[in-house]
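Contributing new complexes? Match this layout with nicotinamide-adenine-dinucleotide.
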Amino acid sequence: IQWEKQIRVSAEIHRQGGMSVLVTGAAGFVGSHVSLALKRRGDGVVGLDNFNDYYDPSLKKARKALLTTHGVFIVEGDVNDAKLLANLFDVVSFTHVMHLAAQAGVRYAMENPHSYVHSNIAGLVTLMEACKSANPQPSIVWASSSSVYGLNEKVPFSESDRTDQPASLYAATKKAGEEITHTYNYIYGLSITGLRFFTVYGPWGRPDMAYFSFTRNILQGKPITVYRGKNRVDLARDFTYIDDIVKGCIGSLDTSGNSTGSGGKKRGPAPYRIFNLGNTSPVTVPTLVSILERHLKVKAKRNIVDMPGNGDVPFTHANISSARRELGYKPTTDLQTGLKKFVKWYLSYYGYNHGEAIN
Ligand code: NAD
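Output block (do not edit by hand):
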């Protein structure tokens, strides 16, 4: 197969030093940023993505084009394709897997429950099976989510807090993922690090997320729907800038312990770790809108409604002391600064007259 040859060449180049990383969901928002950052520091990266149409596939193609120009090789395929995975692991001795492929979004689950089971549960198990059988076994870092804290209202959320009350099917599949990966760590000794991301935003972001769709609507003069929680309390999120998340992902890969990579250190008992990756400073949604208005220089038409019971939780707030201590994780971008960078990217990508091009 043609891609085998290309991957062999890229694996050969990186055999001398850095990691050799399989990034799943590489054409996605976080995956594209992580792939580029790894490539820039000299690691070998192979990306895998099924380019599904959950949101505008042309954005995924554009991210792929960017990655390709930087020398990241992307394979189009599904994490449920066991044969493809076996083939990939056969061709490249991956030292690490950065697993970011998933069906994201909480509301979409109301109409499409099975796509969450397909990607977040069945796909995860298929990937774990491939990692278990690979020689050498790669260390796995994967994206869980802050949504696992569900109905827990004790903030800030710490990793040891209860996660047994998910508010959406998305959250339930991420929670299941934590238990599935624990099993593979316990039985097969796979090194596992689960990262609970808190509302990631930034350039090349996801069109289904509020900051992105608000930007589009504000520029088009359309109203935006702002949810309000119980007792008219504003919703708040611990918005975390993409570059900070990327540093947390790379810190996790670097400390995840593996038999062949990262300075050739020998692995003791395989670790099972879970970290919050947030920003520790929640911001309300109305404040988010005000910042966007300032950066866009356009007034938003707010349509304020009570939050329907569709999977959203009222607020999120991360305690990041574990990630700080063990990964050297230190978020540095506040929402003002991060949104300024997002808006700059948005306007250069779509322009001021962005019409109906994306969903
Ligand atoms: P994204 O949707 O932009 O990226 C996911 C990518 O995975 C997409 O390109 C998609 O095409 C691909 N994919 C989905 N199912 C697949 C499958 N079965 N096989 C192969 N590829 C598949 O989302 P993102 O925001 O980049 O999120 C990355 C990860 O982080 C996801 O696991 C998500 O659940 C998690 N996460 C994200 C956030 C956030 O705020 N962005 C918050 C918490 C957790």
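Reviewers usually confirm one structural detail per submission. For this one: The CA atoms of residues 196 and 276 lie 5 Å apart.
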